[in-house]
Specification:
- The protein is built from eleven helices and no strands.
- It is rod-shaped, with a radius of gyration of 29 Å.
Amino acid sequence: REEELDFHLNQLERLAAPTTITKMSLWTLGQDHQFFRHPQRNPIAGILMKELTITPLQARKIIEHRHRIRDLCDNIKQCMALIKQLKSLCKHKQKIFNDRMTKCQEILTPLQVVKLLHWIDEHSGTLESVCPGWGSERIRAGNKAAVGGAGTGTTAEVASKTQNQSENGIQQKLSNP
């Protein structure tokens, strides 16, 4: 689950990041009037003016939109910062969940862990009223198999399978010293 989350967040970041062509376009469109009026002062300005044959009228129109382009650049920076915050928050929540589950698995038997997960799933409203913010910490499973981690079926079936697997593992350890 953590790998899938990382994959999708990285995809989101990649899709939100401007391409090289977009970066160059935004940079060019964000230049001040000196860039277009005196292209000899900046080698890139001279090349662009010559290659694109930008007329003085076009240069004025580009300059008129300079503030909108700067705002767009600021929006892109904010978007990238928000994605970074989202990645950090998700990583933090994954760590909290993993730490809590590790602690539960150290203390409880596999059957008790399954029962706990089922109880949490069935009583999320109670938990939210008793523990404000509970829902923000909760990672919802898509199906019962994800909750129990032992296959498909009802919670009782999952608990039974988990108990049997646990007992089989203990018997194997006892018979193979």
